[in-house]
Amino acid sequence: MLGHPDSGLNPAIFRAFTEIYGNKLYEICDLHKGNSQFYTDNSKVDDRVASAVFRNNTTETTHLPNGSSICRAEMCDIMHALTIICCDKDRKFIIFSDSVSNLEAVSGFKLDLGLLQNIFKDYTYLANSGQTIVLCWILTHVNI
Q1: For a Cys-Cys bond, which of 31, 92, 99, 133 suits 35, CB 3.0-4.6 Å?
Q2: CA-to-CA distance for 142 and 107, rounded, in angstroms?
Q3: Which domains, from first to last, does the chain contain?
């Protein structure tokens, strides 16, 4: 099992930092306590890339083509979560992602890439069908 990366911070400061962000996450979860929660993550080793969506006790992974960028993997995370939501009976969701740039792109509707266009299309479809989806940025590698 891999450990958390070295943050370069004094360990006491790092613990305080992770506690603050952990508490903020709990506040956000409490604010959206009726929403089904999704967490996204991805990883790249050499030129191999994978993305994952976590919900309840379920993890779904996708292997991307070799050489894919982390940015593309992060967009695939969001797209994968939206695909799961599309078939779900729940009506309210929150997707936690550590990719602030992709969350901003989706929220600002910047249609630069085909995958982002698909995310926007699915997000709009789901919202128009009465489902509420909150996109929420979380800090990465802080024991959350």
Answers
A1: 92
A2: 24
A3: 35-137 (3.30.420.10)
Distance CA(123)–CA(54), nearest Å, equals 18
pLDDT tens-digit series, residues 64-119: 999 988 888 888 888 899 999 998 889 999 988 888 777 777 776 655 567 777 88
| Whole-Å CA distances, 112 to 27, 38, 101, 121 | 33, 25, 12, 13
Counting other chains too, the contacts that 23-32 makes at CB distance below 8 Å and 24 or more residues apart are 25/96, 25/138, 25/144, 28/94, 28/136, 29/94, 32/92, 32/94, 32/134
Residue with tokens 């959350």: 144
- pTM beyond 0.70: the answer is no
| Structure token pair of residue 99 | 């990719």
What's at 12, amino acid-wise?
A: A
Judge contact between 38 and 84, C-beta under 8 A.
yes
Which residues face 27 on adjacent strands? none
pLDDT tens digits, one per residue of 24-37: 888 888 888 889 99
CA–CA distance, 136 with 144 (Å, rounded to integer): 14
